[in-house]
Amino acid sequence: MNIDKHKLSKEIINNKSFIEGTFDHLMNHKLIKLEENYVETQIEINESHLQPFGLVHGGVYCAMAESAISYGASINQTESIWAGVNNNTDFIASATEGLLELKAKPIKLGKRSQIWEAEIYNNNKLCAKSTVRLTTIESK
Predict the structure, then answer these.
(1) Residue 52 is part of which domain span?
(2) What is the CATH number of the domain that holds 129?
(3) Most buried in the list 14, 27, 98, 99, measured by CB within 10 Å?
(4) 10 to each of 7, 32, 35, 97, 107, how far by Cα in Å?
């Protein structure tokens, strides 16, 4: 996929939504709030998010955090494309239905790396906490 990063940044900022045809779109990940230094997203849990025992699969939490945080990093520094290089997600409580709500904010904003933290809730219950480190993979 050939991406015009400037067009992409403008599309994200203007539409405040994940790009159609991406993994986020496939997993029904919704961008709720995208501001400098803050991101909120949601996923309405459905059968495709569950592992065989009926719980939300851990990969959903990891993907949700990394995607949201990558968008947040890109908004903070639009001259670069940011990609996760480490994702540490702790699973605190299980979820089986309802809405997953993510809130993320940066811990460190550097020129070549950023570290963000995300908390993911289900019915106001903390289910997962992620720390994601990103690096710039392309500059202007």
Answers:
(1) 5-138
(2) 3.10.129.10
(3) 27
(4) 5, 16, 13, 34, 24
